Amino acid sequence: MSDLKIGRLVVGALHTNTYFVYKEDGDECIVIDPADTGRLLFGKIRSAGFRTVGILLTHGHHDHMGGVETMKLAANEVAENHGYDPVQVYACEAERELLNSATMNLSDWLGHACTLDADVYVKDGQEIEIAGIKCKVIATPGHTVGSCCYYFEEAGFCVCGDTIFNMSVGRTDMPTGSMSALVRSIKDKIFTLPDETILHPGHGDATSVAFEKENNPYSA
C-alpha cells in the first residue's frame, strides 16, 4: 500500500482545486496548481506540517497559476534560510507560449495581467521525482495545447487539471483549445489508466476512470 497522500485546498473566484501531495510520515510536499493567494496557500500548507519542495502546473490558465509567483517566493525564503534546494516550477513544454502571454492565459481578461516562465519544462511520458515523490507526465492537449496530467501510479491517483471533471470536461473555446484533441486525450490517455485510478480534477470533486467511462458524456 502506498504511503502517498493528497490534500486539497479550494481557492479563488473560480473555486480551483489546489492539491498537495505528500508522504504519510514525511514533511515535504509537491503543490499542484497554486491558483491564487500564494503566500496564504503556502502558510496553510506549512501550518499543516508540510514544506513545499516543488510546484507542478497542469496548464497555464490564470485560475491555476495565479498564486505561483508568491508561493515560490515564500517557499524559497524558507529554503534559503535553512539551506534547502530552491523550489522549481514544472509545466508541459507545449504550454510555454500560453504561460508567457497575459492574453492567452486570460489574466488580462480577469483584470490582473501576469505571465510566468516555468523553471522546468517537461514532456509526455517524462518521470518526475521530487523529494522521493514520483509521478509521470501525461500530455493531454485539448483544454489548452499544453495541458497535462500528473499520474502518481504507486498511489493510484491522477491530478488532471481541466481535462476531465466528474461527468464533464474542460471547455475548449479559449486560446489553444480543441474539442477534438480533448476527446482524444481522454480516450487515448486518461481512459487507458487502470479503472480504479482516482481522478482529481481542477474543479469539483474527485471521480474515477471507471465511473467516467460509464457516465461521462464524452466517453462514447
The strand count comes to 14
Q: Number of DSSP helices?
A: 6
- What's the shape? globular
Distance between the terminal alpha carbons, to the nearest Å? 33 Å
Fraction of residues in H or I helices: 10-25%
Q: SSE order in H/E notation?
A: EEEHEHHEHEEEEEEEHEEH
Mind sketching the topology for me?
Layout: E1 4-11, E2 16-23, E3 28-32, H1 38-47, E4 51-56, H2 62-65, H3 68-82, E5 89-92, H4 96-99, E6 120-122, E7 127-130, E8 133-139, E9 148-152, E10 157-161, E11 164-165, E12 168-169, H5 179-188, E13 198-201, E14 207-208, H6 209-215
Parallel strand pairs: 3-4, 4-5, 5-6, 10-13
Antiparallel strand pairs: 1-2, 2-3, 7-8, 8-9, 9-10, 11-12, 13-14
Helix pairs in contact: 1-3
Short description, anyone?
The chain is α/β, with parallel strands linked by helices.
Notes on the structure:
With 220 residues, this protein is α/β, with parallel strands linked by helices. The chain is globular and about 55 Å long. The chain has helices at residues 38-47, 62-65, 68-82, 96-99, 179-188, 209-215, and strands spanning 4-11, 16-23, 28-32, 51-56, 89-92, 120-122, 127-130, 133-139, 148-152, 157-161, 164-165, 168-169, 198-201, 207-208. Helices cover 23% and strands 30% of the residues. The model has no long low-confidence stretch (mean pLDDT 95). The strands form 3 sheets. The protein has a 6-stranded mixed sheet with strand order 1-2-3-4-5-6, with helices on one face. Strand 5, helix 4 and strand 6 form a beta-alpha-beta unit. Helix 1 (38-47) crosses helix 3 (68-82).
